[in-house]
Amino acid sequence: MAHPFIAILNRTIAYTKTTMEVILQARLAYKAVVNAVLNELSNAPIHRYEILYYQQKFKRCCNEPSVKKRLCR
Length: 73
What we know:
By secondary structure, the protein is an all-alpha fold. It has three helices and no strands. The termini are far apart. The model has no long low-confidence stretch (mean pLDDT 76).
């Protein structure tokens, strides 16, 4: 019979892997939304400087420490 510590360790590893997969999926979904918004802005009949403004705004948001820790690694 395996040591109880090994069983706990294996469960912890499984939970960690699942958590990391969820975080990865959330980051990919976030990036997909940002790209979709930027594509819509690119297709909209607006001036190029407005598109650049929104792109910079997203980059600033992504550089915020709280957001960066969660999504922009």
